[in-house]
Amino acid sequence: MFNKKRMSVSFLSTVLFVSGATTIASAETLENEKERYLIGFQSQQVLESYLDSSQSMSTSVSDELFNFSVEHTYKEIEAVSANLTMEEAARLEEAHGVAYVEKDEVITISSQTVPDNIEQVKAPVAHQRGLTGAGVKVAVLDTGIAPHPDLHIAGGVSFVSGEDYEDENGHGTHVAGTIAALDNGIGVVGVAPEADLYAVNVLGKEGAALTSVVIEGIEWAIENDMDVVNLSLGGGAPSQALEETVDAAREKGILVVAASGNAGTSSIDYPARYESVIAVGSVDSDNKRDATSQYGDGLSLVAPGVDVLSTFLDGEYVEASGTSMATPAVAGAAALLKEQYPHWTANEIEQRLLAETTAIGPTFEYGQGLLNLDLATK
Predict the structure, then answer these.
(1) pLDDT for res 106
(2) Which N-terminal residues, if any, form the signal peptide (predicted)?
(3) What angle do CA 353, 358, 363 make, to 5 degrees?
(4) Which domains does the chain carry?
(5) What per-residue confidence (pLDDT) applies to 50?
(6) Model confidence pLDDT, tens digit, residues 170-203
(7) What is the per-residue pLDDT across 280-325, written as a single tens digit (0 to 9) for each?
């Protein structure tokens, strides 16, 4: 599971003002085309004098009478909205008692943000080199992935009785956003924004599963030719069956990435501890090990996992913390390298990721260091 710190308003809280759409048309067409305007008045009394009982408005400018329908009369300001032609707007602007006439411009959802964790692993440098994860298949074995305007889900499957692969928990959707939130001008961007995301529901809405169900999910990934498997999950008990399954995935060329665990102890969870799995620990924005991040023998590397902003249920974005949030950054990084070197084996991708890190502390706590996509994709 993960620590959800704060829920943001959909598409973050800041709005961006942009100009209205421009079309190519004749001057006559533009003059006669009605667009929405906001009309402000010098006082409430003046506004009321313009309105009649039918909520239409009449005024005389230059001895010409014209009428138009009021779309909305505002309660807190002396203003209305109405559809006007350019000519009508220009004439109304000169009318007695009218304070302003302004086009009703478009307000969009916020512009896209590059989250701190994505910057911290230098993913934007890889993006500038043209790497996006395009064509690489990443299976997210988790609680599923919810529909979200910042995610493209290529497909999926559920191994949880009574559930499909649409996320009802939020964990899997958050993980998916760090891997591959779209570079679409809204919300956030992931490490590999054009990777093909596959939602494999093994944890269900309760966020827990038997080992046997996780094994079924990994087998599905093998049978469906996934390139990368993200396992932001784990437990303290070893399983020979699970170890053999992740070994089989590696033999088929699949890179499996798993969370080290969130108990803060000096031993990492399974399946992250298995040799054929990349084990990921969590650091904060200052590259210090998160106190809850498990460490010790078998830890491969670390990535940002504290207050990570990513996609969530109902089209929202939240900040969350844990090794679950660090792991998908590495899965996304593997997707970028697979795109860059399509003929590389899983072993070769792992070797590059671990060789080209930023050294930030002892290997017992930080593995080979902090994920660094500037170095890894050179």
Answers:
(1) 62
(2) 1-27
(3) 85
(4) 3-13+111-376 (3.40.50.200), 19-105 (3.30.70.80)
(5) 77
(6) 999 999 999 999 999 999 999 999 999 999 999 9
(7) 999 999 999 999 999 999 999 999 999 999 999 999 999 999 999 9
Residue 71 confidence class, pLDDT cut points 50, 70, 90: confident
Tokens of 196: 């093909």
For 15, left (φ over 0), alpha (ψ -120 to 50), or beta?
beta
Q: How far apart are CA 83 and CA 242, in angstroms?
A: 65
* Helices 211-223, 240-251: inter-axial angle, 10-degree rounding: 10
Which tokens in the block code for residue 267?
């031993």
Q: Tokens in use for 317?
A: 């974005």
Reported in sequence order, the residue ranges of the chain that DSSP labels E, i.e. its strands, are 3-7, 16-17, 35-41, 56-61, 64-73, 79-84, 98-103, 107-108, 137-142, 153-158, 196-201, 228-231, 255-259, 277-283, 301-304, 308-311, 317-321, 357-358, 370-371
Euclidean distance between the first and the last CA atom of the chain, given in angstroms as a whole number: 34
Cα–Cα distances (Å) from 160 to 165, 180, 241, 259, 305, in that order, read 9, 24, 19, 21, 27
Class of residue 187 by CB neighbours under 10 A (exposed 0-12, middle 13-18, buried 19+): buried
Interatomic CA distance for residues 338 and 332, integer angstroms: 10
Q: Which strand ranges, in their side-by-side order, compose the sheet holding 357-358?
A: 153-158, 196-201, 137-142, 228-231, 255-259, 277-283, 301-304, 370-371, 357-358
Question: Distance of alpha carbon 58 from its chain centroid, rounded?
Answer: 49
CB 110 within 8 A of CB 14: yes
Note the pLDDT tens digit of each residue in 119-133. Answer: 999 999 999 999 999
Which residues belong to the active site?
142, 171, 324
- 354 and 277 Cβ atoms separated by less than 8 Å: no
Instruction: Look up tokens 């990349």; give the residue.
Output: 278
Residue 109 has pLDDT above 70, yes or no: no
Structure confidence at residue 14 (pLDDT): 22
Residue 53 in this model has a pLDDT that exceeds 60:
no
H/E segment holding residue 223: helix 211-223
Q: Estimate the share of the chain in helix, then strand, then coil, as percent rounded to the nearest 5.
A: 30, 25, 45
Closest to 276 measured CA to CA, from 295, 254, 297: 254
Cα atoms in the Cβ-side hemisphere of radius 13 Å centred on 287: 16
